[in-house]
Write a structure and sequence with these properties.
The complex is a heterodimer of chains A (258) and B (64).
Chain A lengths: L2 E3 L2 E3 L3 E4 L7 H10 L3 E8 L19 E5 L6 H15 L3 E4 L12 H13 L3 E6 L3 H10 L5 E2 L13 H10 L5 E3 L5 H10 L3 E4 L1 H4 L4 H21 L24
Parallel strand pairs in A: 3-4, 3-10, 4-5, 5-6, 6-7, 7-8, 9-10
Antiparallel strand pairs in A: 1-2
Helix pairs in contact in A: 1-8, 2-3, 3-4, 6-8
Chain B lengths: L1 E4 L2 E4 L4 H7 L7 E5 L2 E3 L14 E9 L2
Parallel strand pairs in B: 1-5
Antiparallel strand pairs in B: 1-2, 3-4, 3-5
Classes of the chains: A alpha/beta (258), B mainly beta (64).
Amino acid sequence: MSLMIGGKLIVNRLFVGTGKLPDYSVIKRMYEELKIEVFAVAVRRINLEKGTKYSILDFLPKEAKIMVNTSGARNHKEAVKIALIGREITNSDWVKIEISGELKYLFPDNEETLKASEILVKEGFKVFPYIFPDLVLAKKLEDIGVSAVMPLGSPIGSNKGIDCETLLKAIINEIDIPVIIDAGIGKPSHAAKAMELGADAVLINTAIATSFDPFLMAKAFSMAVSAGRLAYEIGLPKEQEYASPSSPLADLIRGETK
Amino acid sequence: MIIYVNDKEINFEGNIKELLKFFNYKPEGIAVLVNGEILKREYWETYKLKEKDYIEIVTLVGGG
């Protein structure tokens, strides 16, 4: 049931992005009560007026895995720089490469992501590239030694769920490194669906962080992820066109002889 | 001497460590870039700030 990824054994296959969280103290509760172990964070300039009074680092449990996201990077050079800064601050070598190629859908620039991945794998990082679901790119990334690929389900923050099932299924079936479905998962049923497809994990941010109760919503997603994964591991039944009765067809009560 | 810190123009003499003190920042949990390049912690006292240096002080924030 556990997942070996980036050199670490992970029990909870729900990874949580911490953007837009109204209160960072919920991170500790997610770690302690829900056993969520992987948290994504971003790198930004300090606001000179607000200062560093409340750093997210103060709320991240020491044993949790910090995944530094390069969001905001426009090309591979900026992504590499953000990764190096992240490692300098956190000592964590897990980096999610996110390079937006355009701003309306925030679709990732797959070419720049490949370039950044090559450099950061050589620099000794555990590299988690956020990609458009392209099997050919996923294979190239696997060849250069990334720790997992993170194809999108649908646009970041859109809550539209798994919008490109066939493309995701192809990646899940054809590569041997873990596949984490990232972005667009809006409901627990979407997360369960991702896991039933055979994803190794999901990364969820907006749907949890912007909910009325982020802790309870994380719990709901965590349950869905476990349920979907368990069903996948047992093996899901095949679909068929027509009904197949669940109750026996013999010895029916009829009230008269045939 | 005029330098820029996170786009704010300030008049300052000293090293990076003193600059952080000037802004009342704890040195933990942050990184410093000088003219776009990371300045490792071990050089915070020895790097000589120059006129018009563009300093960026960065930290971790919530992100996906």
